[in-house]
Amino acid sequence: MTATTTSARSDLSELGRSETALRTFLHGLPGVDQVGAEQRAAQLSTRSIKTTAKAQAIDLAIRMVDLTTLEGADTPGKVRALAAKALRPDPADPSCPHVGAVCVYPAMVPYVAEVLRGSAVHLASVATAFPSGQAPLEIKLADTRAAVAAGADEIDMVINRGAFLAGRYKEVYDEIVATKEASGDAHLKVILETGELATYDNVRRASWLAMLAGGDFIKTSTGKVPVAATMPVTLVMLEAVRDFREATGRQVGVKPAGGIKTTKDAIKYLVMVNETVGPDWLDPDWFRFGASSLLNDLLMQRTKLTTGTYSGPDYFTLD
Amino acid sequence: MSERVAVRKTYKLFIGGKFPRSESGRSYLVQSSNVSLASRKDARDAVVAARAAVKGWAGATAYNRGQILYRAAEMLEGRREQFVALGIPGDEVDAAVDRWVWYAGWADKLAQVYGGANPVAGPYFNISAPEPTGVVAVVAPERPALLGLVSVIAPAIVSGNTVVVAASPSEPLAAVTLAEVLATSDLPGGVVNILTGAITETAPTLAAHMDVNAIDLTGVTDAALATDLEVKAAENLKRVLRPAPADHDWTGDPGLAPMTALLETKTVWHPKGV
Amino acid sequence: MFEYAPAPESRSVVDLKPSYGLFIDGKFVDPADGGSFKSINPASEEVLAEIAEAGSEDVERAVRAARKAYDKVWGPMSGRDRAKYLYRIARLIQERSRELAVLESLDNGKPIRESRDVDLPLVAAHFFYYAGWADKLEHAGFGPRPQPIGVAAQVIPWNFPLLMLAWKIAPALAAGNTVVLKPAETTPLTALLFAEICQQAELPAGVVNILTGAGDTGRALVEHAGVDKVAFTGSTDVGRAIARSVAGTRKKLTLELGGKAANIVFDDAPIDQAVEGIVNGIFFNQGHVCCAGSRLLVQENVADRVLESLKRRMAQLRVGDPLDKNTDVGAINSAAQLERIRELSDAGSAEGAERWSPPCDLPDRGFWFAPTIFTGVTQAHRIAREEIFGPVLSVLTFRTPAEAVEKANNTPYGLSAGIWTDKGSRILWMADRLRAGVVWANTFNKFDPTSPFGGFKESGYGREGGRHGLEGYLNV
Q: Core-most of B141, C36, C293, C447, by most CB within 10 Å?
């Protein structure tokens, strides 16, 4: 990927024109050895992040949280409260940073937009018939346009896993291109739903497919299937964005989502970002956590570092 | 000053790592205690628990299984006096501890002794390795109640099988107490399930059950019942271990057969070429 | 941007004594002639303890104690009971693992991450595994009633002090032998703590004896007429000298010696994992590993890409305080070893190979060497032929599988090899042709007590680990 810089750049933009070209390229990517990838992820998990480094990591992680609620029971009241929390996660401590974004269903976007207006917190909306993606393309695109029109500046789309697993890569590609277009100026996060892709080889191929089609972020999961973000899956995706930037010069962000609940987990991910793709990605513009309960644990650990005593859940707002 | 009134123990079944009473609500008086009288439905529940435990137990590393069996030996040694109080001779308890230790060591050696490379005539890598057969139903020997029980459970589970054991009907307290040892030995729930009660009630259900892979008839003393169970077992071609002879020496070297009878051998071929 | 703060493992778990005696017949005793030497922390050059130096009279005492224990206690004991002592030792090691890990890192210089996550778990597992053999020897494939040999003299190196002790003592005791073991002079401390563990396990006196000292002590031990078995791990030169010294005797000998392993990367390899494997292959334990993947053979059509990834990965290696939990590469074990690494590296540069190391700040005190690779290396270079035993990788290229085999085998050594490819049949084709005792495919530097380890050719003979590991300790 690296030795052939400029010629590769022009070649890659042509790949989406043909099913054969896409297939040949994706299947020509180096394989991922499952055992080796999982061992590397486990090894990175043994890093011990203490004191000043921990404080720095916690604040960074808070800034990277996409504070999320994606429930059938969501109401305007619920999402307004969540948005308020996104702006001031710890009302008792003005030095606490705000989160990266609030992530909701399209129907909830207008209520969140009211609260976030004028702030630096982004407003993400899932779209494209989230979480299954099993709807006609026109409906998925209309879903996307509606979310943007209502005020979302980030769109979290799902790929067509059925088409991907059936080997119809061009169909997946074209849907991402169309959604990117429908998103307009909004940033497009492409959810691979890695729990359904089953192998790391598939995760690597889907990552490249999403990037080739113009995704601004690649995201692991919807949070709606049993297996959500894992360390090794995120490692493979980080390797993909690293190699993609080397090949094309374009940087793509990564968002693990679902299952990251504790500060300890979040710090492991930051260590992995640091040692796999480096400081260029240690920024909310390039790395996010899709999470809900993670935020309160980060706040508790943050308080522990400043006060020296362990806090309890009663001392943080539940929104 | 009056004598202290003792708190007595309730003896229950051991299914899926829990100690339920029989769903039938029945018990029988034996060894001066009311012991659960397991029903056919309890036997079915135990098979479900044993099946659910196969994936994790067979999938654990052999080293891990060995550690857990050794832990069972440690816990049994610690409860030595409890078994003696049930009337088990001290020597038998010691022998039962040693048997756990012996089998613990087999966990990561069985494949080395019972598997191996096959020099096939061609450009192929070819290797045979044993795997557990799955869920094993066991009729434990009537006595020795502890050593006999350990001698049928340990060789089944060491390789990754899970078991449903019909305990000695006349001396079931050792079995229930052994369940308490196993419950505190890091053994995952469902790997060993113990039913107390009548063999004539539980064993036919287990022998006929289509989700049981093997049956060990060691403790069946009635020849007609043994034949009947073997016939039932034939329906899904269960691996069958026939009853032990009446003069079986439980203290002697068990050899490999109790383990190998409950294994499947898998042979893998792979070409060699550039 | 994201700097990891120091995360030091506490030393307080270790109770270092100012001086240590010899462990003979179940007791710590002073050496007959009163000699001693110092063991230092290679990361700081701080003196850790004064260590007794065993002379020939001490060797005599230790062998006699081992003989008596063999004749009276350990030889006649049932396998079942020997097993129980070994299980006890395994459990005590598990219980005291942090103490042993910290002490190992202090004395050896290896990162605590490795002593904690690799060495100690393997040590405990090794004792656990061989404990299980003690009462099953008749099933090991060496006949119906295999017998022990007698008194084993064991001499081990400094790179994995406690693990090499386990590899020697566990099978010896399981098979019914008694031992006199000499740890390396730069790393005696965990062996002495192991002696305390033997006391705690109430292992009968004389079954394990530990003699500290240098080359002279080792020579006196292996040449002692009362020894029935010699087991040595270390350099090929010393191994050769031992083979000469046992010539004409009845002593059984096993040797685990040097290596110059090829780690072979094909163009269809899982590149990210291959790079991890290359790093693990040569920088694990500062490259102080006899089976280290010290020669990288990479297919020419992916060489640039692999090297670029490798350099990027090497820049992430954290070199420094062995007790910091985030350290990846620790200290070189001794001044003498550092000197040898420097000498061979300088020879590499002088012979025209291109040298590269990532930027890294090395501590002022102690013995340090930055992770280093040489590219443009040919088979004729000294750095492609001689064992450096340090964090130095020589990179060569090949075009075809046959050429890879030819280059990999073109060495007097034959301990290990690595193969990286997604193609299963090629792995097996290569493995058939590689003259090496251990072949790792799509992984490297993996060890397990059930898996035999040892070399072809000048890498030694005999196997340690697995069922085969018993053979060297049985009269077969």
A: C293
Distance CA C124, CA C159 (A): 18
pLDDT at C262: 98
Domain ranges of chain A: 5-308
Please say whether the beta carbons of A264 and A232 come within 8 A.
no
- What CATH number is attached to the domain comprising B76? 3.40.605.10
Q: Give the whole-angstrom CA distance, residue B120 versus residue B241.
A: 32
In one letter, which amino acid is A204? R
- Put simply, whether A33 touches C (Cβ < 8 Å) is yes
Q: Which residues of C touch A8 (CB under 8 A)?
A: none
- Residue A156 annotated among the catalytic residues of the structure: yes
Residue type, position C166, single letter? A
- In the numeric block, the tokens 């509606």 are attached to A146
Cα gap B86→B214, rounded to integer Å: 31
For A72, other C-beta atoms within 10 Å of its C-beta total: 5
Tokens of A97: 């940073």
Q: What is the mean pLDDT of residues C47-67?
A: 98
Task: Using CA coordinates, name the residue in chain C closest to A4.
Answer: C305
Which of B128, B107, B109, B108 is CA-nearest to residue B118?
A: B128
Choose, out of C133, C423, C428, C433, the residue to mutate when testing the contact with B (most B CBs < 10 Å). C428
Please, which chains are in contact with B (at least 3 CB pairs closer than 8 A)? C
Token pair in block for residue A224: 């709606």
The answer to whether the CB of B47 falls within 8 A of the CB of B164 is: yes
Check pLDDT > 80 for residue A95: yes
Domain that holds residue B137: 27-271
B and C: touch, per 3+ CB pairs < 8 A?
yes
Query: How many domains, chain B?
Result: 1
Look up A180 and say whether it is catalytic: no
Contacts of C428 in chain B (CB under 8 A): 125, 270-272
Find the radius of gyration of the CA atoms of chain C.
Answer: 22
Distance of CA C276 to the CA centre of its chain: 21
pTM score above 0.80? yes
Taking a C-beta distance cutoff of 8 angstroms, is the pair C337, C389 a contact? Answer: yes
Q: Does residue C257 sit in helix, strand or coil?
A: coil
* Alpha-carbon gap: A37 to the closest alpha carbon of chain C (Å): 6
* C59-110 pLDDT per residue, tens: 999 999 999 999 999 999 999 999 999 999 999 999 999 999 999 999 999 9
Pairwise CB contact (< 8 Å): B274 & C401: yes
Polymer length of chain B? 274
How far B267 CA lies from chain C's nearest CA (Å)?
16
Of C300, C99, C74, C253, the C-alpha closest to C190 is C99
What are the φ and ψ backbone dihedral angles of A118, each rounded to 5 degrees?
85, -5
User: What is the DSSP track for A106-160?
Assistant: GGGHHHHHHHHTTSS-EEEEE-SSTTT--S-HHHHHHHHHHHHHTT-SEEEEE--
Residue A311: pLDDT band by 50, 70, 90 thresholds? confident
Active site residue A219: yes
Q: Which residue has the tokens 């060691």?
A: B218
Whether domain C262-441 has CATH 3.40.190.10: the reply is: no
Report the residue of B61, B76, B260, B272 to disrupt the C interface, i.e. the one with the largest count of C CBs within 10 Å.
Answer: B272
Q: Which fold has domain A5-308?
A: TIM Barrel (3.20.20)
Alpha-carbon gap, residue A245 to C86, rounded angstroms? 55
**Which residue matches tokens 């299954």?**
A132
C342-375 tens-digit pLDDT: 999 999 999 999 999 999 999 999 999 999 999 9
Residues 6+ apart with CB under 8 A from C196: none
Residues in CB range of C96: below 8 A, 6 or more apart: C193, C197
Question: Does residue A175 sit at the C interface (CB-CB below 8 Å)?
Answer: no
Fold of C19-257+456-475: Aldehyde Dehydrogenase; Chain A, domain 1 (3.40.605)
As annotated, the residues of chain C forming the CATH 3.40.309.10 domain(s) are: 262-441
Check C256, C386, C464, C471 and give the catalytic one.
C256
